[in-house]
Write a structure and sequence with these properties.
CATH class of chain B: Mainly Alpha
Shape of chain A: globular
Largest sheet of chain A: 7 strands, mixed
Number of helices of chain A: 12
Number of domains of chain B: 1
Structural class of chain A: alpha/beta
Shape of chain B: globular
Distance between the termini of chain B: 52 Å
CATH superfamily of the largest domain in chain A: Response regulator
CATH class of the largest domain in chain A: Alpha Beta
Helix content of chain A: 40-55%
CATH architecture of chain B: Orthogonal Bundle
Oligomer: heterodimer
Largest sheet of chain B: 2 strands, antiparallel
Radius of gyration of chain A: 23 Å
Distance between the termini of chain A: 83 Å
Strand order of the largest sheet of chain A: 7-6-8-9-10-14-15
Structural class of chain B: mainly alpha
Chain lengths: 382, 291
């Protein structure tokens, strides 16, 4: 008797779940919304960046939806945390692709995570727009489903090295980089750019991105008496380098990429960080900004009560570029059409400047160079 | 001079590793399990000091003992919730429980403090002074001195005081200690709480020198673990020696090797010890399993 009841119940449950499955799929087939996945480090040591990434994407999606959506359909964002961990990033994108059935995704911050996700998005043909990852390996010509809004390390590291060599006239340059995809990629570009200028770096030192003490590397660099240290890392390690360099009496100029721009750099490192030069795609000053950037700054401040940083701006632009692709792909939302639509973006004025997406999916743009001043403010130097 | 400067850096780094290692060793001796939450206790020390001093405005010398007390309390809670119930479980179960505690504590810290990095105002001064060509930072010198002083004090405590002796007796043989009328329960708990205090002090010494976030426990915990294993998981002095060797090795790796491998040093040490002298670690395990 018991068995019979169990059988009947099991049958009922199975039928119910099948029906539920059916209704689920028919829902997404009628699809009044366009589902877009957002992956970011909403927890973990880059959670601050993940948070601004999310805000930027949400602001853009809200603006698009308020203006009537894309071909009459609203954008629905589905967010997943990658915890700044490549393994988690892969599970996150797998969930978005296979159970949420997103048509495209935006993400993420950490280059290693983006690289890990790209295998999934490529094989399941989901266009991925990465707002912030700058790692050189990301816009690999073999992957047809990636677009990057961030200025690649290729662009950034090239720009800061050329600034040191051509504008400042330095010849003795040391390089420090964090020992991962992001840091190594940047370091290689710096070294190559120096080589093209007929120079050799006086020292090249690696460090772990979690390392607390970098004095051993700095002492080795100090022996070479460089005029500048180009460091390819994020703001926290940047602050450590600045403080320990000051303690060890190193007077070289410190410079690096966009990852250094963060209010925390000055808060953590104080006076030692004043004078750090770095590349940037966005400068949050509504007076000096273009019309589009100023509109973005105002809207962001209204929505969140805080000044946007470059990450928020790039996340915003990611959604805007993706919207171009979605618009072009019509009702079918064929992935190849979405990609073609995004790659057709040319001289589009956005929050982070005028963007052209090249055939590899990289956003070509002008690079700004900014300098950290007393009190933690920035000035535009180039 | 360059080498000497590197040695000094390595020494100050190593004495902190040593203090963390000390916590591992104490708990390992008493409980027969490596407590992978030891790094997290350091983090709690650092964050308690941050809250008490930087947030609540307590003077730093008052905040330090209070931060140690907070960490001892947290240590007690960890012991009560995750060590005591598993006292008779097998080694693997208990090891995994400590890893669980460490992940849990780390994420609680993240929920409270976020993922931001913090800097802590210097306690003993961070304006460097020069001796000849050497650059010395007062805070680093003090860290080294405090590290050594604590090892000496701990040795005295374990060898000269009644409580210390009963802890050592418990560590050597629980059954025999119990038969001798020693309160084994209290000794075990006491060891755990003292190890937490040492961890907290290590955390408080790191805070003014380096930037830290919720993840500091993981970083420093690994180094402390490697130092403890290198020191033979024996009492105090071994842990300190292990810490200093590791600290110096990390600095010299940059000078003579390549900085790319600096962060691998701790793992290489672990690997070598496990290959070459596994008995150091295995012996205690066997003894405990017998109990």
């Amino acid at each position: 008797m018991k068995k019979k009841v169990l059988c009947v119940m099991l049958t009922l449950v199975m039928t119910a779940s099948m029906l539920a499955g059916c209704s689920g799929s028919s829902d997404s087939a009628s699809a009044d919304t366009i589902k877009v996945g957002v992956v970011g480090p909403f927890s973990g040591s880059s959670a601050m960046v993940g948070d601004t990434e999310r805000k930027g994407v949400e602001l853009a999606a809200n603006q698009i939806n308020e203006a009537g959506g894309i071909n009459g359909r609203q954008i629905e964002l589905i967010e997943e945390d990658d915890e700044q961990d490549p393994t988690t990033a892969v599970s996150a994108i797998n969930k978005l692709v296979s159970s949420d059935n997103v048509v495209a995704a935006i993400g993420t911050v950490n280059s290693s995570c983006t690289l890990a996700m790209m295998d999934v998005t490529e094989s399941s043909q989901i266009p991925l727009v990465t707002p912030i990852s700058s790692g050189t390996a990301i816009t690999d010509p073999e992957n047809n489903y990636i677009v990057r809004i961030q200025a690649s390390d290729e662009l950034q590291a090239g720009a800061i090295t050329e600034y040191a060599v051509n504008d400042l006239g330095y010849t003795r340059i040391a390089v420090m980089y964090q020992n991962d995809d992001f840091g190594t990629g940047g370091m290689e570009v710096v070294v190559n750019t120096l080589e093209e200028a007929g120079l050799e770096p006086v020292a090249v030192e690696a460090f772990d991105s979690n390392a607390t003490d970098l004095s051993a590397q700095l002492l080795t660099i100090r022996d070479q008496d460089p005029e500048a240290i180009i460091m390819w890392t994020m703001y926290a390690a940047g602050a450590t380098i600045a403080m320990q360099a000051q303690q060890l009496g190193i007077e070289a100029d410190l410079m690096g990429g966009g990852g250094l721009t963060n209010a925390q750099l000055y808060e953590l490192g104080g006076e030692a960080t004043v004078g750090i030069l770095n590349t940037q795609t966005f400068f949050a000053d509504a007076d000096q900004a273009s019309e589009e950037a100023a509109a973005f700054i105002t809207a962001y401040e209204e929505a969140y009560g805080e000044t946007p940083d470059s990450n928020a701006a790039m996340a915003y632009d990611s959604m805007m570029v993706l919207a171009e692709g979605l618009e072009a792909a019509g009702d079918e939302l064929n992935p190849d059409d979405i990609m073609a639509g995004m790659k057709a973006v040319e001289n589009m004025p956005l929050a982070t400047g005028t963007i052209t997406i090249d055939e590899n999916g990289d956003a070509n743009r002008d690079i700004l160079i900014i300098r950290l001043c007393e009190g933690g403010t920035y000035e535009l130097v180039k | 001079m360059q080498i000497l400067q590197q040695l000094i850096q390595g020494l100050s780094l190593g004495s902190i590793y040593g203090l963390v290692a000390l916590g591992y060793v104490l708990i390992y001796q008493a409980w027969g399990v490596l407590n992978f939450a030891q790094g997290e206790v350091c983090a709690i020390g650092a964050f308690s000091l941050l809250v008490l001093h930087a947030e609540l405005g307590m003077p730093v010398y008052a905040a330090m003992p209070v931060a140690v007390l907070v960490s001892m309390l947290v240590g007690y809670v960890i012991e009560f919730l995750s060590f005591r119930p598993l006292e008779n479980a097998n080694g693997t179960t208990r090891l995994i429980a400590t890893i669980g505690v460490s992940i849990c504590v780390r994420n609680i810290l993240r929920m409270i403090f976020g993922a931001d990095y913090f800097s802590f105002p210097t306690i003993f001064g961070d304006t460097p002074f020069q001796v000849g060509e050497l650059i010395l930072v007062p805070q680093n010198l003090w860290n080294t001195a405090i590290g050594f002083a604590l090892v000496a004090l701990l040795n005295l405590f374990l060898k000269k005081t009644r409580i210390g002796k009963s802890m050592r007796a418990t560590a050597q043989d629980k059954e025999a200690a119990r038969l001798m009328g020693i309160n084994v329960r209290a000794s075990l708990t006491g060891t755990f709480v003292i190890a937490s205090a040492l961890g907290a002090i290590a955390g408080m010494l790191i805070a003014p020198v380096y930037l830290f976030n919720f993840n500091i426990g993981a970083t420093i915990g690994t180094k402390g673990y490697a130092a403890a294993v290198l020191g033979g998981l024996d009492f105090a002095s071994g842990a300190m020696t292990g810490g200093i060797i590791l600290g110096i090795a990390e600095c010299l790796a940059v000078v003579f090797g390549s900085s790319e491998y600096q962060s691998a040093i701790a793992y290489i040490v672990l690997f070598l010890v496990l290959i070459l002298k596994p008995s150091e670690i295995m012996s205690k395990k066997k003894k405990v399993e017998k109990v």
